User: Fold this.
Amino acid sequence: MSATLTRPFDQPDAPADLDLRGHGQPLVDKTFRWILFLCLFVGIAFLAVLLAYVVIKGWPRLDSRLWTNMPSIRRPEQAGAESAITGTLWVIAFTALFSLPIGFLSAVYLEEYAKPTSRFARFVEINIQNLAAVPSIVYGILGLAIFARALALGQTVITAGLTLALLVLPVVIVATREALRAVPQNIRHGSLALGATLWQTTWRQTMPAAIPGMATGTILALSRAIGEAAPLLLLGAVTFISFNPTGPFSAYTTLPIQIYNWTKESREEFQVLAAATIVLLLVILLAMNAVAILIRNRTQKRW
Amino acid sequence: MTTATASSAPGGLNPLRQTKPRYGEAVIRGILVLAAAVSLFTTFGIVISVLIPSLEFFAEISFTEFLFTTTWTPLFANPQYGVLPLLMGTFVITVIAVLVAIPLGLGSAIYLSEYASPKARKVLKPTLEVLAGIPTVVFGFFALEFITVYVLKPIFPDIQVFNALSAGLVMGIMIIPTIASLSEDAMAAVPSGLRDGAYALGATKRQTALRVVVPAALSGIVAAFVLGVSRAIGETMIVTIAAGLQPNMTLNPLQGMQTMTSYIAAAGSGDVPTGSIEYKSIFAVGLLLFIITFVMNMISIRLVRKYRQAYQ
Assistant:
């Protein structure tokens, strides 16, 4: 430190764009920079190894058997994940059906209607922040006690859809609020000045302008629900299911649960099958994320 | 919605005054408030659904037996309900995860916030965040099939197939994005005047980062740590798959152990008869888990508010 302080004064005819930052202990500083980069690199390298491993391990089973055959315990070479794929589609459809309208409306309330001083709104806000960090297995307990048992919906598609909807609700609300916040105030003021009511302004001006942001957030929220397994363990998804769901009150299984079931089997063929199903699941999630990014980039508007 | 047409035809002599009271607007407001209240009902529902069976549980098993005895054998003929082994399992795995995630997450955050060029950050940050989007069942599979077999077994030949170490390590990697992204937000909120001041005094980039930016963002960074710990405590699939299902009162990470979450998952996915004491034990453990994570989440939320107030 003391050496660096005197440095600029040692060079009386220094150039005008002199870098005034100190240059003491260059080796320590350089090492520090490399250590930081290494920290970041570990996470990214881990990701790369994980992806490579599941692709290599699952490669022998990455063919049409995976999505045209039903799970089987006796004949792993014939087993597929068809019922898990259709089950995932059913459950996610119900998750979207419940979580999106409620999420959008909650966000509109908090962002457009509630006064900043409203104690109710502040309480809801803190509550949402907490809910976002409640362990997902606790939502499973909620689903088991309230939806499956108290409301007697049983261990069905609709119970899973409702439970996952509550789980991703905070994500939908936070993303929608951000999208609404990005719409400039001028648009609201212009609409209100022309005599539109608050709801007319919100419905015809603010929300349409926020659609791209809402779509992005929605896709990310649903992709979280697709990958979620823990709460469904308590909601009957682990039972051996070799048929496609026939309706909201049908039994079901999903991709993450099917992966979990195969991981528990001791035979190596099932581990390969689990890896292949993981690749399928990751491809679905990747595709959804790509769509989300595409929407964001396509519609990025400079106000 | 029905009032929408009224606005285009303001009637009578006084066009600026609203002619009809707009009941529709009030109805819509009511619907919005109701939607916002769903999240309150969710919290209420969680509390009710863990509390009621727990109270029944504690009517049969004393509080002190639950919290202070060291045998957890709900499936035995003579079941014992001492939750300490589950707490121990959660503790050991969380500590391993935190030892991985805090240095790596904070290092990544400092690099992204203070060192990376805007261009590099645009690529590196989303890549790191892909980690947060990987389903936890995938991490569990990877911990069991890869980390234990190919990384840990060569180093520790007597490691068990199911062990706390692989679960903890992978969980640590999983929460890096949580810690990195929140810490980076906190560092980004530090006014650049503080950095410029440090540079003007001759500090190097490292000195500025470590002695000015990190201390100034400390409440946000601690909030990130607390949230990361809370996520580690609540994580279920990785421990269920990779750490085994045997309650184990030990600190040895090479052995398998059961956590609070993996007990809930294992007991809840089996055929436990409703109303039995074993069924109720799921909720008692759930209550304990909810209380622990709730306290940590609240601490984290408070700390984030603190730094937001300080710099806005």
